[in-house]
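So, could you explain the following?
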Amino acid sequence: MIRHGSLRLRLFILILTPLVLIAILLGYWRYTVAQQTAQELFDDSLLSAGLAISRDVAISEGDALSPTTRSLIRDASGGEIFYHVTGPGGIYVTGYAYPPASASPSEQDAYKPQFFEAIYRNEPVRVLKMTERITLDNLVGDATVTAWQRIADRNAFANELSIRAAILMGVLLATLAFVVWFGVARGLRPLLDLQNAIDLRSPDDLSEIKRPVPVEVHGIVKTLNRLFGQVETSINAHQVFISEAAHQLRNPAAAVQSMAEALRDAKTEADRDKRIAELVAAAKNSAAVAEQLLSLERLRQPTHQDQMEKIDFRAVVEEACAEMGVHILAKGVEFEVTMPDTSIMVAGDRVFLAEAIKNLLDNSMKHGGTKLSIISVVLQCDQDTIRLTVTDDGIGLTPDQSDTAFSRFSQLEPSDGSGLGLSIVSAVARRHGGQILINPAVKGASLTLELPKTR
């Protein structure tokens, strides 16, 4: 038995795998959003600080920043804020010296706040540069405020947001994994109950499984019940076959034993020779019955495509008729065979087909009666079907006797046959996708074996 691992584990992996992939995508999206959010928040904070510095410079005429503005700069969420202010004519007013400059100055509106990235003291920074018209010491002109923050502080804030989101998703995934693992186990419990119910079965109990199961398992239970039914039918058929076979073999075995005892008690040489001939005939009859029983059992086995070969059915009929013709002619019965000159191809088993033809001819000899004078074989073929018809002028057989004629161990009239010949022919026909038919006849019997033709 090939094992494919735990169904519980497979379901666990199938459920969690897409969730983990989605979590990874969401984590990447959340990190991107965190970066964008931090950029917007820090730029707003930088702009607020720049506006506050510009206002204080204008109010104090460059003397100092108000405590509120200093507190804003000190407590900004983006970390420490650096600033540099110049008055009209580029005069230094306050702040840090040597502010970072843009590598590519923008040509946009000079009074519109500009954001750009630059290097300050070997660190990347985010810079705000804004220009406003102010009055400073009776001078009216443009004042430029430059404020900047370290990008590392912004990234740390964004990373903190991402880590919080990752921790939240990790906790959710862990909780979900726990729920799925034990939830799947609980969901599979009906399967385990079904397994226990099957384990309690004995080889003699092949009744249907009637235990309530989930909808998804209905198909499995239905298939099991059908299989149990087929197995039970097969076992019953084997038991009937064995019983019937034992019954049929008992008579030939008793006959052989009786002939052997008669041979032992023979008084004269002539009587001994007669008993020997009868013993040989009884042994042959017993062997024939055993061979037919074995053929029936082989025909019960399922047909595999690799057992079928493309053969010339005309050649099979010719060989079977040549073998049986000797026995038919020896009984003083005329024997006619009519076949086309060309090959007739069929997919089948040569041995079984030959045995079916021999049984048809043997049936005519054994059940034709004392008035039997001729047996004819006609092989015909059309576009799709091959027809082999065996006709005799004996006692006769009608279509309404088909059930009895094709049943095992049944005979319409007492004879020295075993009652297996036509049942073997019927089994061979079914095995090859064909059928055996009893044709209406004015006199005697006419049977046709139909087989599909191989193109």
Residues 255 and 423 are 24 Å apart (CA to CA). The chain has ten helices and twelve strands.
